[in-house]
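To whoever picks this up:

The nightly regression suite flagged Thiamine-monophosphate kinase as changed. Nothing in the input moved, so I suspect the structure step. Input below, exactly as stored in the fixture:
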Amino acid sequence: MRELDIIGKIQQHLTAYNEKVICGIGDDCAVFSGDNGRPWLITTDTLVEGHHFDLSWHPAYELGCKAMAVNISDIAAMGGLPVHATISLTFTKDTEEAWLDEFIRGLAYMHHRYNINLIGGDTVAGERLSITVTLLGQAHKEPVYRHGAMPGDIIYVGGPLGSAAAGLFLFQNHRDEIETLKDEYASLLRHHLAPMPQVELGRALADSDYIGAMQDISDGLATDLAHIAKKSAVQAVVFEDKIPVLPEFTRLCKRYQLTATELALGGGDDYLLLFTVRAGREKEVERLARSVQAMAYPIGLITEGSGVMLKGPTGNLTDISFRGFEHE
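Regenerated output under the current build:
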């Protein structure tokens, strides 16, 4: 079964009834009301060896960082700050103490960087290493949801796309050449191994009155933008000639004859913010992004309709809805 079908089945039978639940299944985080008037955010993610990471090339320290980053990115996508975390680890009989020390060091770095409190978790032995992090955060104001996009909004991303997917391509297909390629493609490899969530940008955008909808890009822009389009009952049009990528990404695609647009829009693991900006507020948003040492790239337009369309250089439209990473 497809991931979306499984989630749909769960939603049919398990619905939140408590009046304090503001938003349940269907966004980057669930949202529930807090006693101080500031909403709480909660998210959870599981990384499984052989599906989300490969220990033959993923160092323990960077894996610890990434396990936290993917959850922090969800909190950032709602405009919040991370506060408390629990971590559950399934380890194998082959897990070495030195590896575990480095993994914990990576977790600790992210906890200290973002002032997160570890408040619990679980450990269990199993056949395959897996890491589950549950993260609670708080929104400063009202959280930003996926359902706020409107026709006329400009679609923005918080950085160049496809870097992590390109790094993964190198590890999977040219592992024996990594030592000779690592300097030339260092930024691509780093984006795959240890992405950094855009917490400051998310907070700044949420505190402004400039944006309609927001989420992070984990399964590829084609899929994650489709979530915004569906929740907002609009169509998203992405301009192919506006897709931002790093120069290293372009060189890699030419070197290995990869389809750059497909990799940039469908590769996943970007963990950049994707958001829509009210018409006429573009300059303010771009200045706001620079004020927190981030970037904001306009890549398309929200229109009436449904789905996600890619507009090519000749004006041709191609439906790319949900053409990103699929959990199987």
